[in-house]
TrEMBL record:
Pfam families: Ribosomal_S6 (PF01250). It comes from Henosepilachna vigintioctopunctata. GO terms for molecular function: small ribosomal subunit rRNA binding; structural constituent of ribosome. Belongs to the bacterial ribosomal protein bS6 family. This is Small ribosomal subunit protein bS6m. GO terms for biological process: translation.
Length: 148
């Protein structure tokens, strides 16, 4: 199943109300057929800019990140219901990147000088393909065709 991250900014409120808002958001995920994998509290911080939400201007928020598995068809419903929640200032759902590729690293490759390593050689080849030729003055034109 696809792993999503739901980043939520809650308005500043007492701890008991904040707990009930967190539970309400978790129950919303469960009711839409999702599984809550992890909940991170990033703390209360100043927002990078003033945020207007539900008729109020917010300069501070409590930041939380929910890691969840939900069907992709329910993402719009979750986003819409959180948008109606008065305690939520901002919400955003991201697809979490999972990397399955594991590169094997040997000691022999690591002991080589940097210019002789295989991945550096590949980068050099890519840069040679992207290199644009410079203007040559002996091409028959009496002037430089581009402004200096």
């Amino acid at each position: 199943m696809i792993i999503y991250e739901l980043c939520v900014l809650f308005r500043i409120m007492p701890k008991t109300e904040l707990v009930s808002s967190i539970k309400r958001t978790a129950n919303l995920i469960y009711s839409k057929g999702g599984i809550l994998r992890k909940l991170d509290n990033l703390g209360t911080r100043n927002t990078p800019f003033k945020i207007s939400s539900h008729g109020l201007v917010h300069r501070q928020a409590s930041y939380f990140v929910y890691e969840m598995n939900v069907p992709p068809t329910t993402l719009a419903d979750i986003n819409e219901e959180l948008g109606r929640d008065v305690d939520v200032i901002r919400r955003k759902i991201f697809k979490k990147n999972t990397y399955n590729e594991v590169e094997e690293c040997t000691l022999h490759e690591e002991m080589q000088p940097v210019p002789y390593r295989k991945n550096v050689q590949e980068l050099l080849e890519k840069s040679k393909k992207l290199h644009k030729p410079k203007f040559q003055y002996g091409n028959g034109l009496d002037y430089y065709p581009f402004q200096k």
